[in-house]
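Practice problem 4.
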């Protein structure tokens, strides 16, 4: 068919079979089927559609079959499925190719969406635009799925897992502007999708937009390749399966929530994951909470300590200097044993200094002087061994006593806080 096939508003009680059809209106609309109602399946297996296939508002009671089909509408929407309703699965799989944008915005698929092995090509725009889509089964973009253009899954709800295992996402070219074919950027200068040269073709270009996405699992294993930024802000998963070799060069993790990570890597390796985003306290707190749920308090403290270090590294030099001092002395409170070590060093210093030069008595009948107990009296707040008030140092000894008292308060409080945190594990 080389003219428009018009099915707008049609009602078909059974199936619509377009298997192996050749429909061609280059640069225009090949199939106009908005609000089409089909009681059974819509099958386009092995079909070739040159031009736009419009299914906006269509209701398909059974499945949509696109196995081996080719949709060809370069630089424009190849399939338009705004608010599409499918009562079973949307099956495409290996052999399905799209040159243009595949649009499933606000679509509802009662079963699975199978795009495993499919190839979508729309450089400079969106390869898959499925914002707000609801999927009752798995969203399968794995096993050779290839997208040359942005994959937009913002606000998608998936009852099963989102599978990107072995997928390749490459956002090459300059993203389109809002209102242009294939463009769904937010329009702010310098943001992915605003059409600025800084976004074109580099590692800072958006490849996966999964903001506010919800799914049971996210699978990024087995050679998954995301050539650009993966935006996971405020997404929610029960489990994230990944591999350090598959991590994108840039991540956006603000507000990302997950209950578990697989495999359970060490905190040091997971910190490399967080380092692919700018410093975000929530990202470090989320990872630390995950380790705590698994009973690994030491790993949780390592993560929170790394977060404090990144926070202070970005501040002005006085704050950096103060942060460095806190890090060396007490590890920002996450290394209480380090504080105990400093207490021991100061205790030895005070014992030697006051042992060589005993401070003068401060009372008429002082007890026998003990430099070790006297230094301990200076260092430990609240505790009184009777030596501190009995002797009154002067000169340099007074300044040493002041140092011991101040350091004792800080270090002893840090140790007490660390012990309390350990006993109060979440």
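Answer key:
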């Amino acid at each position: 068919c080389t003219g428009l096939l018009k099915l707008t508003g049609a009602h078909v009680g059974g199936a619509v079979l377009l298997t192996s059809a050749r429909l061609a209106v280059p640069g225009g609309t090949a199939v106009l089927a908005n609000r089409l109602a089909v009681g059974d399946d819509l099958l386009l297996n092995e079909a070739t559609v040159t031009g736009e296939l419009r299914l906006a508002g269509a209701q398909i009671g059974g499945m949509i079959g696109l196995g081996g089909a080719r949709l060809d509408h370069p630089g424009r929407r190849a399939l338009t499925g705004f608010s599409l309703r499918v009562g079973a699965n949307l099956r495409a799989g290996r052999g399905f190719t799209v040159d243009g944008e595949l649009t499933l915005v606000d679509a509802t698929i009662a079963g699975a969406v199978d795009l495993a092995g499919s190839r979508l090509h729309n450089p400079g725009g969106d390869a898959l635009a499925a914002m707000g889509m609801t999927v009752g089964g798995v969203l399968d973009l794995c096993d050779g799925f290839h997208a040359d253009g942005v994959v937009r899954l913002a606000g998608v709800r998936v009852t099963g897992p989102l599978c990107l295992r072995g997928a390749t996402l490459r956002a090459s070219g300059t993203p389109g502007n809002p209102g242009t074919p294939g463009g769904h950027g937010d329009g702010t200068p310098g943001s992915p999708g605003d059409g600025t040269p800084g976004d074109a073709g580099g590692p800072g270009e958006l490849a996966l937009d999964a903001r506010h996405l919800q799914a049971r699992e996210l699978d990024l294993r087995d050679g998954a390749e995301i050539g650009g930024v993966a935006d996971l802000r405020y997404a929610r998963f029960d489990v994230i399966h990944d591999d350090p070799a598959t991590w994108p060069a840039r991540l956006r993790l603000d507000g990302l929530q997950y209950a578990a990570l697989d495999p359970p890597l060490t905190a040091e390796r997971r910190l490399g994951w967080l380092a692919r985003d700018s410093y975000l306290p929530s990202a470090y707190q989320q990872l630390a909470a995950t380790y705590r749920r698994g009973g690994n308090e030491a790993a949780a403290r390592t993560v929170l300590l790394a977060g404090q270090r990144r926070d202070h590294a970005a501040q002005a030099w006085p704050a950096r200097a103060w942060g460095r001092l806190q890090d060396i002395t007490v590890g920002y409170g996450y290394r209480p044993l380090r504080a105990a070590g400093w207490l021991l060093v100061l205790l030895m210093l005070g014992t030697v200094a006051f042992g060589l030069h005993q401070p003068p008595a401060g009372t008429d009948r002082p007890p026998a002087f003990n430099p070790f107990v006297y230094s301990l009296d200076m260092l430990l707040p609240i505790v009184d061994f009777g030596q501190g008030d009995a002797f009154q140092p002067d000169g340099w000894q007074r300044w040493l006593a002041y140092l011991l008292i101040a350091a004792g308060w800080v270090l002893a409080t840090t140790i007490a806080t660390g012990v309390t945190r350990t006993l109060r594990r979440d």
